[in-house]
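Could someone model zinc ion with this protein?
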Amino acid sequence: MHIHLLGTGAGGGFPQWNCNCDNCRRLRLGQIKSSPRTQSSITISGNGEDWVLFNASPDIRAQLESFPPMQPGRAIRDTGICAIVLCDAQIDHTTGMVILREHTKPWDVYCTASVHEDLTTGYPLFNVLSHFRGVNWHEVKTDMQPFTIPKADNLIFTAVPLKSEAPPFSPHRHNTVPGDNVGYRVEDTSSGKNLFYAPGLGTMEPHVLEYMRDADVVLVDGTVWTNDEMSRHGISDKLASEMGHLDQSGKGGIMETLSGLEKPRKILIHINNTNPILDEESQEYTQLKQAGIEVSYDGMDINI
Ligand code: MLT
Ligand code: MN
Ligand code: ZN
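Reply:
Sure, complex below.
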C-alpha cells in the first residue's frame, strides 16, 4: 500500500496566518531548520490508481496539486479520489469538502454516526454540500469490525474508537460519545502489512495500544510536546488534554508509549505550529530521534 502524507500540520498549519510564535516567526524569517506544513490529511492506495482520502483539509486544493497521481486526467472532470474517510468532524479534517464541491457525483464519505450528526447540525457541512452533488454517507461503526471500500483494492479498514474531544460546535462537546473520534487500521491484503493512523488521540487506552503494537507503521497525534504548550506561548490557557490531544513529553505521553513498541515504524503527524519538534535542530527533535520516533513532513511517502 502506498501512503502519501498530504498535510502533516495541525489546525492552522505551519506557519499559521496570525501566529508569531517562535516557530512561525522563525520560519517566515528563514531562521529555522524546518519546512512549512499544510493541514492534516493523508491518502492511501492499494493499487496505485484509486486513492482513499483520509480527512479533507482546507488546504486540499494545494495538496492535490502537489501530488500528481491524484489527478490522473482520464476525463474532462476527473479525480483519483475514490472515497473520503473522516476521523472526526473537526474543521481542519472536513472543510476541504467544500473545496471539492465540483465533483461530478456524490462523494462517498465514510464516517461515524456522531461525526455525521455534527456535520448536519453544529457544523452543517453536509447540508451545504447537498446543494451541490451531495454526500453518499456510509456509516462507520465503532464495533471494530473490518470493512471494505469499493475501488480501494486490497485494503481492509477498521475504525478504532478513541478518547479525544468532540469539536467546539458539536452537540456533544462536553459529553463525548464513541465515534466522535476514531483512528483507522488499514491493512493491505497483498503484503499483509498494516498502518494504524490516529491524528487526534487524547488517551492511550489498552485497545489502542494493542492496535499500535500490531502495526507495521504507526502515524499518531504529534500535536504538542507539552500539555501546557499553548499557555507557555501566551496563546491560550487551554490545555492540550482539554482539546483531546495527548502530549509527547509527559509521563505516560506519546513518546514514552511509542518508544516501548518494538514492531512498528513510529511517526508523529498533526503537529501544531508551537511544537518545538518542528525545529530539526532542537533538543526535543533529537530526543525523539533517539527514541526511534520520526517527525512527518508534507509529501512524505510510505510504502508497506
Ligand atoms: C484539533 O485538532 O484539536 C482541532 O483541529 C483544532 C482546530 O480547530 O483547529
Ligand atoms: Mn486538528
Ligand atoms: Zn505559531
